[in-house]
């Protein structure tokens, strides 16, 4: 059975049952995660197919899963042919301006010494700073992801939110170390990729509180989905294979408010997951996003 066939089975026999699942509170989120773990075990025992639950929360139901570089209004003038060039220019500007303004030690450098390790590290940090890239944020935490679906917003408070649940096969989760006989991303050129996968980004605790952008990744239990070059502009929920490994759960406005309140009482809030930013810091990133499109 090939990947496409088994993904179709995952969708029809397992994930489709969750499409109408109702999330009213934190307990429902934990039950949902437990059910995905049960599905994981069933797939392993029956087919030897090892998958891991990942999540993505969004405030507005109906949106496709696209990287920031292909979301409006930034997407104007961006296409599959120039997206990598814009992304590369973005991280170069990010590196230069952060070092110039805050100092080079503000940028984390991985100890993994491969040709492309620095580029990957910059991409991850730029993504969590708000720079537009071809990466898609995921989390291994259903609770943290629910925060992003339920966070209060004047624009979307009265709109349904969505929680995406994605089962990622273990062979498509790439780590950072070349020391083990497993797929790893630092040996690959992030601006020329022939396959899509998920980056399991390590967290090094030394002085992490001084590295704001990596600290966000750590706090959010973050991982990053990377698309192949020929699928950059195709939403994750429309990509062949991956669309069958996903299920979208709707969260009503009333339940969003209830869940957000429960999260806040539990200490899960904006300052914990995102870290508070000044208007000056926001403008700093906005200027990078504006200038990176000037190829």
Largest sheet features:
4 strands, mixed
H-E order: HHEHHEHEEEHEEHHH
Number of domains: 1
Shape: globular
**Secondary-structure-derived class:** alpha+beta
Give the termini separation: 45 Å
Overall mean confidence score, pLDDT: 91
User: Could you give the count of β-strands?
Assistant: 7
Over all CA atoms, what is the radius of gyration?
19 Å
Strand arrangement, largest sheet?
A: 2-6-5-4
Bin the strand percentage. 5-15%
Number of helices: 9
Q: Low-confidence spans: pLDDT under 50, at least 5 residues? A: none
Fraction of helical residues: 25-40%
Describe this structure as you would to a colleague.
It contains nine helices and seven strands, in the order H-H-E-H-H-E-H-E-E-E-H-E-E-H-H-H. By secondary structure, it is α+β, with helices and mostly antiparallel strands. It has one domain. The strands form two sheets. The chain has a four-stranded mixed sheet. Helix 4 crosses helix 6 and helix 5 crosses helix 7. It is globular and about 50 Å long. The chain starts with a helix and ends with a helix.
Tags for this model:
295 residues; alpha+beta; 4-stranded mixed sheet; 9 helices; globular
Helix-strand blueprint:
Elements: H1 3-13, H2 26-47, E1 51-58, H3 83-102, H4 117-129, E2 135-139, H5 142-150, E3 161-169, E4 173-174, E5 197-199, H6 212-219, E6 222-226, E7 246-251, H7 253-265, H8 270-273, H9 279-291
Parallel strand pairs: 4-5
Antiparallel strand pairs: 1-3, 2-6, 3-7, 5-6
